[in-house]
Design a protein that fits this description.
Radius of gyration: 20 Å
Number of helices: 11
Order of helices and strands: EHEHEHEEHEEEEHEHEEHHHHH
Oligomer: single chain
Structural class: alpha/beta
Shape: globular
Strand content: 15-25%
Number of strands: 12
C-alpha cells in the first residue's frame, strides 16, 4: 500500500528542512511526498525544488496563495497513494510513526482511518504528549463522543484511506478547517482505530491560529461544532461547545447560537469549575449564563 504525504508550504523556510527530513526518513518507505508551495514569498519555492532533485519520491506544486485548505486540496487532487496523510511544514514526525499505522491498515481492510499520538505544543511550557491508546471504533458517534475526537480533529495525526476523500475537500476561506472536515470523513467511515505507537510533533507557534484566534475565527469554530450537535452530543461535548460559545459572546456581544441543554454537573471529565458551570446553565439558562460570564470577564479585565 502506497502512502501519499501532503505538505502545504508557506513562509516556513526555517522549519521546512526538518519537516521533510522527518518524512523521507520514515522507516516506512513506500510513500510519495507532495510539497504544495502555496505562493510562499520566502525561499521555500527553491527549497521545494531542491528536495525534488534530492529524492525521487518528492514532487512539488507551485501555486498562487490560496490558504491551507486550498493547498491540502491541491495535494489530494494529484495524490497517487491508497492512503493519504498531511503534515504541517512547521511540524515533524518521530521516525517510526507511519510504519505502525500502515501495518494496521494493511492488516485490517475494514479500517478507514488510524490516529496516532501527538506531542502537543512541543517546545512550550505547556507541552504534553496526547495519547489515545489502542482502541477500535465501529460507531463514529462513539469515537466522536467517548473518544472525544472533537478535542483532536487535527488532520495531521491520522492516516486515511483515500476513498474517504472521494467527494470531500477541506473548506476554503475558513479557519479550524479540520473541525469542519473530520465529521464529513467520519460520515463515510466504517471503522476508526487509535494506536499507542508513533508520534507527531505539533510545534509551538505563538503566531498560529490556535494562539491568535479572535471573534471571527472562534465563530467559525463554533459553527463547525453546531453542525455536528444535532447528530452526536453528550454532556461533556456540549460543555466543550459551551466554552467556545462563551468566548464568542465575550468578544462579539451577539446572542448565543448554542441551543439550551440541561446537563449533569457530575462527570469524571469535569473540573470543579466545569461542574459549577453545568449547575449554572441548569439554573440560569444559556442566555443568562452568557450575560453573567461576559459581565464577569469585563469586571476582571477592568481590575
Amino acid at each position: 500500500m502506497k502512502l501519499s504525504v501532503i505538505i502545504p508550504v508557506y513562509h516556513v523556510e526555517a522549519t521546512l528542512q526538518r519537516c521533510v527530513e522527518s518524512v523521507v526518513g520514515q522507516t516506512f518507505t513506500d510513500l510519495e511526498v507532495i510539497l504544495v508551495d502555496d505562493g510562499s514569498p520566502d525561499d521555500c519555492p527553491s527549497l521545494c525544488d531542491d528536495w525534488v532533485q534530492r529524492d525521487s519520491r518528492i514532487s512539488v506544486i507551485h501555486k498562487a496563495n490560496g490558504g491551507l485548505s486550498d493547498a491540502r486540496n491541491a495535494g489530494i487532487d494529484i495524490a497517487q497513494g491508497e492512503v493519504l496523510t498531511f503534515v504541517d511544514s512547521d511540524d515533524y514526525l518521530a521516525p517510526d510513526t507511519y510504519r505502525h499505522a500502515m501495518a494496521l491498515l494493511d492488516s485490517d481492510p475494514t479500517c478507514d482511518m488510524v490516529e496516532f499520538p501527538v506531542f502537543w505544543h512541543y517546545g512550550a511550557k505547556e507541552q504534553a504528549v496526547q495519547k489515545f491508546g489502542n482502541a477500535i471504533y465501529d460507531e463514529m458517534g462513539k469515537y466522536w463522543l467517548q473518544g472525544q475526537a472533537y478535542r483532536h480533529c487535527f488532520a495531521w495525526n491520522k492516516l486515511y484511506r483515500r476513498e474517504l476523500f472521494s467527494d470531500v475537500r477541506f473548506p476554503k476561506g475558513i479557519v479550524f478547517e479540520d473541525v469542519a472536515t473530520l465529521p464529513l470523513l467520519l460520515a463515510k467511515a466504517c471503522r476508526v482505530r487509535t494506536i499507542a505507537d508513533g508520534l507527531y510533533y505539533y510545534c509551538s507557534n505563538d503566531q498560529g491560529i490556535t494562539a491568535t484566534a479572535q471573534a471571527p475565527q472562534l465563530t467559525m469554530l463554533l459553527e463547525a461544532h453546531l453542525r455536528v450537535l444535532p447528530h452526536w452530543v453528550d454532556d461533556p461535548y456540549y460543555m466543550h461547545v459551551l466554552n467556545i460559545q462563551l468566548d464568542v459572546i465575550r468578544l462579539t456581544g451577539q446572542p448565543p447560537l448554542l441551543p439550551m441543554r440541561h446537563v449533569s454537573p457530575w462527570s469524571k471529565h469535569y473540573s470543579l469549575r466545569q461542574s459549577l458551570k453545568a449547575l449554572a446553565i441548569n439554573l440560569l439558562g444559556i442566555n443568562r449564563l452568557c450575560k453573567i460570564n461576559t459581565l464577569t470577564q469585563r469586571l476582571l479585565k477592568s481590575h
